[in-house]
Amino acid sequence: MSEKVNKILYIVLSLLLAIAFWLFVDDALGNTTSENFTNVPVVFIGAEDTLPSRGLMLAEGGDATVDLRLSGPRSVISELKRGGVRVSVNLNDINAVGPYSRTYDLLTPDNVNKSDITIEYRSRINITVQITNLYSREIPVRMDVVGSVDEPYVHVAERQTTEPSVITLSGLQSEVDQVVSARVEVDINGATSTIWQEYSYKLLDADGNEVELRNMKVSDQRVNVTVPIHMMKTLPLNVKIKESAGSREANAVWSLEPSSITVSGDPLSLETIDEIFMGEVDLSAYVADGDYEQEIKLPAECENISGNKVAILSIRFHGLDTRLIQVTNIKPTGLSERQSFDPITTSVDVLLRGPAEDLEQVTAEDVRIVVDLSEYTSDGTVTVPATVFVDGYSEVGAISAYNVTGKIISR
Fold this sequence. Notes:
Helices cover 13% and strands 49% of the residues. The chain is mainly beta. It has a 5-stranded mixed sheet. It has a 5-stranded mixed sheet with strand order 15-13-9-12-16. Strands 10, 18, 20, 21 and 23 form a 5-stranded mixed sheet that branches. The longest helix has 26 residues. It starts with a helix and ends with a strand. The mean pLDDT is 91.
């Protein structure tokens, strides 16, 4: 480090030490200074909690200030100038309405000893306040939505909400009663998703003019707003066709009416959905041509704008005939070694469907009925769904549903 830099640092250090020593000596010798403090604010202890809990409020005098001339050690006065001076008035002992005159105490920063300060002058000795009854009323929160959204989005106005939906306004009755609503304005221009946001509001009178708070207090400074913005989307309706012998999709013509519906919902979920799946259609469950209602099950949190609750499934079979045949070949399966099954149902009239040339050749010996009893572990009489098999004819199958009743007996 150069000699010139060393010299500069030495001079700065010497000055700092000299100032510190001077301040120390000044305090040690009791040297004091005086300072004027004007418009010192008054802190009213109990005005925000104790008085309201008793149904009271500070109506007048809350904006009081005092002028002070304070003296003390220079370091203390300097600290007061930096940290600020306030005075406090204690209202915790007030239990009724009326005017009150109260003395005040000097408030100083934590690092200042109040005993080091002398009040040489004060513009007033007491602070006079007026205490009145606290009046409270619930005010509805209203929402004004401005702007619009572009297609394919839609503003779902009937579902928009504010939380809370009312705020409590407290103060002088003459002031509180001027307010008729708390108004929130939400701009939805260009919105592509639901708006969840915290908003401030304005207090309005009956003419729509803004009312200032003044002596009034509110339960909530801001409200949470929900404005649903949904996406509209036209989705095709679809089913999965389950085919089997005698009920091939190649021999059926089917359609849905309507073939699509328009829904609205949360864009994040709806944009990934390309169709509405209405379930599985087992062709063997349909004995004849016809039109059948199918419930339209909407995706989660979506609304059907088209209004259709059901779709009509139209089924027409071609190239197939039907034939009723009595079947006595009933076989149980799934029994344990100690169980047996005594059928009460000894024959079933089974309706078969398939190509005419195959149906003519099918005999009762080619058809068997199987009942699965693997889920039945106790003895007793049961009625069990039955499965029909047509052996040797891959394009002939049973249609409709069948049950067999019998007794399960343990040996």
